[in-house]
């Protein structure tokens, strides 16, 4: 059932990376599984609890990493010659932009998180340790 759903998505949105991912995309998938996914419960805890300034550095690392991977993915969508792909890729600029719009939120949300961590005064404030 899930493979049918994946096939339907890849066909509908002409996303061959989901059916036959390039090696660099596979590396990004590993990063997502072993770095990004474990970060999510930690971040959820910190943001739900509130007042956790310690999340600033991990959130900056996370958001920068995710944004960097998305720049590569978006560039691939925009510039790659999909005519040689085994699975159907975008053929027109419109199809490229539709596929781009699916991946774009995965760039915008980490950039919003990065902007928050860098510019929000709550997270910029550094607590000084008390001396005994």
Automatic annotation (TrEMBL):
<feature type="transmembrane region" description="Helical">
    <location>
        <begin position="24"/>
        <end position="48"/>
    </location>
</feature>
<keyword id="KW-1133">Transmembrane helix</keyword>
<dbReference type="InterPro" id="IPR016964">
    <property type="entry name" value="Sigma2_recept"/>
</dbReference>
<feature type="domain" description="EXPERA">
    <location>
        <begin position="1"/>
        <end position="114"/>
    </location>
</feature>
<dbReference type="InterPro" id="IPR033118">
    <property type="entry name" value="EXPERA"/>
</dbReference>
<protein>
    <recommendedName>
        <fullName>Sigma intracellular receptor 2</fullName>
    </recommendedName>
</protein>
<feature type="transmembrane region" description="Helical">
    <location>
        <begin position="99"/>
        <end position="123"/>
    </location>
</feature>
<dbReference type="InterPro" id="IPR051987">
    <property type="entry name" value="Sigma-2_receptor-like"/>
</dbReference>
<feature type="transmembrane region" description="Helical">
    <location>
        <begin position="60"/>
        <end position="79"/>
    </location>
</feature>
<comment type="similarity">
    <text>Belongs to the TMEM97/sigma-2 receptor family.</text>
</comment>
<dbReference type="GO" id="GO:0030867">
    <property type="term" value="C:rough endoplasmic reticulum membrane"/>
</dbReference>
<dbReference type="Pfam" id="PF05241">
    <property type="entry name" value="EBP"/>
</dbReference>
<keyword id="KW-0256">Endoplasmic reticulum</keyword>
<keyword id="KW-0472">Membrane</keyword>
<keyword id="KW-0812">Transmembrane</keyword>
């Amino acid at each position: 059932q899930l493979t049918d759903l994946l096939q339907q998505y890849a066909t509908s949105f002409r996303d061959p990376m989901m059916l036959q991912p390039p090696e660099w995309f596979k590396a990004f998938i590993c990063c997502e599984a072993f770095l990004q996914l474990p970060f999510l419960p930690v971040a959820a805890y910190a943001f739900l609890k509130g007042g956790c300034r310690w999340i600033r550095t991990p959130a900056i690392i996370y958001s920068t990493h995710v944004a960097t991977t998305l720049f590569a993915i978006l560039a691939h969508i925009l510039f790659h010659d999909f005519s040689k792909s085994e699975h159907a890729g975008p053929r027109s600029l419109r199809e490229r932009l539709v596929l781009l719009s699916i991946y774009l939120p995965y760039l915008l949300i980490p950039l919003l998180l990065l902007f928050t961590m860098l510019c929000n005064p709550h997270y910029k404030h550094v607590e000084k340790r008390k001396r005994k």
